[in-house]
Amino acid sequence: YTYADGRGELTYMESELTGMEGTKTSFIFTPNEVILSREGTLTSRMVFREGKKNTFLYDTPFGSATMGLDTHRITSSLGPKGGDMQIDYIVDFDHAMVGRNSFHINVKEQGGIN
C-alpha cells in the first residue's frame, strides 16, 4: 500500500481462495475515481466514478466479454496510514443487470494482534 499527494495504490496477489490464483490485483484511487486492474489468469480494468457508467473488457481463459459498470457510491477514508474504502456498483451484460456488488477494503499497518 502506498499513498502520496491524494493518490493511493493497493496491490496484492490473488489466491486460490478467490478463484483467481496467479492474478495481480491493484486498486488505484484518487479523489475522483478508483481504478481496479487485474493482470494474470484474469485480465480486466474497471474504472469507478460515482454516478457514472463505464464499460470494461472482462478477459478470462475461456473468452472475453464487454461488461457495463454503474457506480452508485464510493466512500473513502484512506490516507497515508490506511483507512477504509467502499465501492457500491452494478455490473451489466448487454444492458441486463448481472449483479449488484460492493467492495469493502480496510487497510491498516501490519503489526501484532491486539
Helix content, binned percent: under 10%
What spatial form do the alpha-carbon principal axes imply?
globular
Q: How many β-strand runs?
A: 9
Unreliable stretches, pLDDT < 50, 5 or more residues? none
User: For the record, what CATH class applies?
Assistant: Mainly Beta
Main β sheet profile: 5 strands, antiparallel
Report the β-strand fraction as a percent range: over 45%
Radius of gyration: 15 Å
Structural class by sheet pairing and helices: mainly beta
CATH fold category name: Lipocalin
What is the succession of H and E elements? EEEEEEEEE
How many structural domains in the coordinates?
Answer: 1
Q: Mean of residue pLDDT?
A: 91
List keywords for this structure.
single chain, 114 residues, mainly beta, Lipocalin, five-stranded antiparallel β-sheet, four-stranded antiparallel β-sheet, 9 strands
List the helices and strands and how they pair.
Layout: E1 2-4, E2 7-13, E3 24-29, E4 34-39, E5 44-48, E6 53-60, E7 63-76, E8 83-93, E9 96-107
Antiparallel strand pairs: 1-2, 2-3, 3-4, 4-5, 6-7, 7-8, 8-9
Tell me what the structure shows:
This protein has 114 residues and is an all-beta fold. It contains no helices and nine strands. The protein has strands at residues 2-4, 7-13, 24-29, 34-39, 44-48, 53-60, 63-76, 83-93, 96-107. A five-stranded antiparallel sheet has the order 1-2-3-4-5, with no helix packed on it. β7 (63-76) and β8 (83-93) form a beta hairpin. The two termini are 21 Å apart. The model has no long low-confidence stretch (mean pLDDT 91).
